[in-house]
Amino acid sequence: MPEFIQFTSPIGTITACSADSGISRIDIGNEEPADALVSPNELLQRCKQEFEEYFSGQRKSFDLPIDWLVMPRFQVDVLRVTLTIPFGSVRTYSEIARELGKPGASRAVGKALAQNPLPILIPCHRVVAASGHLTGFSAADGIVSKAWLLQLEGHHVVAEKLA
Q: Which of 148, 89, 78 has the alpha carbon at shortest distance from 114?
């Protein structure tokens, strides 16, 4: 049975779940953290620490194992490319599609990212429309949270668009 940990962040309560092979899910919402797991496993404690370091500006990348077993193959391919986007950088959906060798698959890339079970850990917030507009984000407050994360990483966002 997966274990989980909850903690507060600047964009809402984060619930991180782990499975045998790594972090399996990250949910970001507005609820207050529950005291459901008093003694989380070492991986979840490390996950919380790395997220806290990221939010405080001390961490630019994560060093956590990911449970890829819960995702379809195309989504794994998209998310693996997304993992390579460095802190402070952005890519477009079409750039990711081209990198996958599927230049016409921008919408499929968007759909795969919309279902990213590990937001922030797999930085789908770093993917924007070709116009620079921010598009959906699965965290509470959606685009507001995406804008906050991009600003944390040094971007200037005006009216839901990179400036």
A: 78
